[in-house]
Write a structure and sequence with these properties.
heterodimer, A: about 180 residues, alpha/beta, Nucleotidyltransferase, domain 5, 2 domains, seven-stranded mixed beta sheet, 7 strands, elongated, B: about 230 residues, two-stranded antiparallel ribbon
Chain lengths: ~180, ~230
């Protein structure tokens, strides 16, 4: 009895050895997952780099809320914080107690035109017009300007900036606001 | 029985074990060689970085601000030396020229193309909801003590936007084709009050803007201050 059983076991082992074992999955193949992740990452990075407003809100820049639902789009960006006027990331003039210094304005304290701002915006206008020319009118210069202003700034300063922008041929203002309810 | 088995195998126990050991050694060597030869780049740390970066980017998007634009047109100024900016006057201009001024005392509504009667024959003025000292009402900076006992500065906005909306709706009902409004404000009125007044003037954004669809005056022109 015992011997027969032993023989059977032996034969079974022999047979088993002949049958090729299924390939072992030692580890998960993560290469496709990595491909996917890399593509997603690149996509995110690209979409962030072209996103319109990468503004940082804080103590000095709180933009007002509005009921407007119009989507923001790319244009020359002028930011008025409580400390400075910034065009496309470059600080242009200092703001103190809700006003720029009278010396940078063409007509002094009662003036509207802010000289350094005008210079910078005129440069932007020239650049955009050059682009329009080079692209054969495909990228038209529409005179659009995105205004990002702190909500507590006096209207006078905002209107001075807008007036100066108007002098530099930026006549279509896009006020950037937070979408409220 | 056992002796029979041993003789049937034809090998002594020792020889058998030596064979087994040899085989195990060979197997191990083979496995090691395979591992060494077929070595792939270890991508796991790289994948960790990727996953972390993606989650970080997603988290920053989720907290991203919901931004919107308000489209306004440029005020047409006269030379500041001459005086305050005047309302634009062009031949193709619509005739109403609804003008809303945000003053210290409230909203002042006027129209150069029509008479908008106020309560006492004056221009309709919407006073702020809570009149305050010196006739100044609306938005001011106040210091108050918050829940944690700290002093903080807050803007108090007392403008009566509801009455402005009612009044502008009345005007719109009379002139449904009008879409343009001129907005001006006093020099120290906070920007957010101007934006809010602009929102009130615009009403709901629609393409035709007939007034019955909730849209009031969607083409806002900014102008200089009053006084």
């Amino acid at each position: 009895m015992g011997s027969a059983r032993f023989e059977a076991k032996k034969a079974y082992r022999k047979l088993k050895r002949r049958v090729p074992e299924p390939e072992d999955i030692g580890y998960l193949n993560i290469t496709p997952m990595m491909d996917m992740m890399t593509i997603i990452l690149v996509f995110f990075l690209k979409s962030f780099s072209v996103s319109v407003e990468n503004i940082t809100l804080g103590e000095d820049l709180m933009i007002p809320d509005s009921t407007s639902q119009v989507k923001p789009h790319q244009a020359v960006q002028v930011t008025i914080t409580r400390k400075a006027i910034v065009v496309e990331g470059d600080p242009i003039a200092a703001v103190k107690r809700g006003a720029v210094d009278a010396s940078v304005k063409r007509d002094g304290a009662s003036g509207y035109l802010i000289n350094p701002l005008l210079n910078v915006l005129q440069k932007h206008a020239t650049r955009l017009k050059k682009i329009e020319k080079m692209t054969g009118g495909r990228m038209r210069f529409k005179g659009e300007l995105v205004l990002v202003a702190d909500q507590n700034l006096p209207y006078r300063l905002v209107s001075e900036v807008l007036y100066t922008a108007g002098q530099a041929e930026f006549g279509k203002y896009r006020l950037l606001v937070l979408k409220g309810d | 029985m056992t002796t029979e088995n041993n003789s049937a195998g034809g090998l002594s126990y020792r020889a058998h074990m030596a064979k087994v050991r040899g085989r195990i050694r060979r197997e191990i060597a083979k496995a090691e060689e395979e591992e060494y030869e077929g070595g792939e780049l270890n991508l796991v740390p790289y994948l960790d970085i990727l996953v972390n970066t993606i989650i970080f980017l997603l988290a920053t998007t989720a907290s991203a601000l919901a931004l919107a634009n308000i489209n306004v047109n440029s005020p047409r100024y006269e030379d500041p030396a001459v005086g305050a900016a005047a309302a634009p006057s062009q031949p193709d201009e619509p005739k109403l020229n609804l003008t809303v001024a945000v003053s210290y005392k409230g909203f002042i509504i006027g129209g150069s193309g029509a008479i908008l009667p106020g309560p006492d024959g004056q221009l309709p003025t919407i006073k702020c909801s809570v009149p305050l000292d010196k006739g100044h009402c609306p938005a001011f900076l106040a210091t108050r003590t918050n829940a944690e006992g700290q002093r903080e500065r807050v803007w108090v906005d007392r403008y009566d936007y509801k009455s402005l909306a009612t009044k502008v709706q009345e005007v719109k009902a009379k002139y449904p084709a009008e879409r343009q409004a001129i907005l001006s404000a006093d020099r120290s009125i906070p920007y957010k009050v101007v934006v809010k007044a602009m929102d009130t003037l615009r009403g709901k954004a629609t393409t035709k803007c007939t007034g019955s669809d909730g849209c009031l005056f969607d083409q806002v022109i900014l102008s200089a201050g009053v006084q």
